[in-house]
Amino acid sequence: MTIKIIQFLAIIISALALAPAGAHLAALPNKISMPPADYFTVQGIYRGWAVLGWLWLAALVADSVLALLARPQFWPFWLAILAALCFVLMLAIFTVWTLPANQATHNWTTVPANWEALRLQWEYSHAVNTALVFAALCLTAMSALSWRSPGP
Question: Average pLDDT of 30-57?
């Protein structure tokens, strides 16, 4: 029964992590060519969203625990490992590209000379992370679906 609970939690947390990522991706086409004043105004809607980053860590933990519990079965184990690695890669992308853009713009309240490059860096790092969280959700679901309960 423990593995079923972890499978459920890993899927739910991954799905919740997809919501803010998908919102960033959906907004990208409308935001990417905005002039500075408009772009910085729109960026203000993300104030407070940092707390949603905890979903990435929670999903990483849930997928890691799932992999640990799924060790006896090849596919469920490796699919959970790949899902966890997607979240590790997301955190790396955030640290290397998204966070520096946030810091250089003081969370999009200051317009530095290279703001357009930072905008591209920020927007596209979020787009890649959306693809990764979607892949992680799929991998987590596939891990759960491929799990075979031991016989009676």
Answer: 95
Residue with tokens 């591209």: 120
pTM over 0.85: yes
- Inside any domain, residue 69: yes
Q: How far apart, in whole angstroms, are the C-alpha atoms of residue 145 and residue 48?
A: 35
Residue 13 domain-assigned (yes or no):
yes
Task: Give the residue numbers spanning the domain of 138.
Answer: 2-146
* Nearest Cα residue to 107 out of 50, 27, 53, 66: 50
3-state secondary structure 2-56: HHHHHHHHHHHHHHHHHHHHHHHHHHHHHHCCCCHHHHHHHHHHHCCHHHHHHHH
Question: CB-based burial of residue 126 (10 Å sphere; 0-12 exposed, 13-18 middle, 19+ buried)?
Answer: buried
Q: Note whether 130 and 22 are within 8 A (CB).
A: yes
Q: What is the pLDDT of residue 1?
A: 74
Residue 111 has pLDDT above 70, yes or no: yes
**3-state DSSP assignment of residue 127:** helix
Total domains in the fold of the chain? 1
CB atoms within 10 A of CB 10: 30
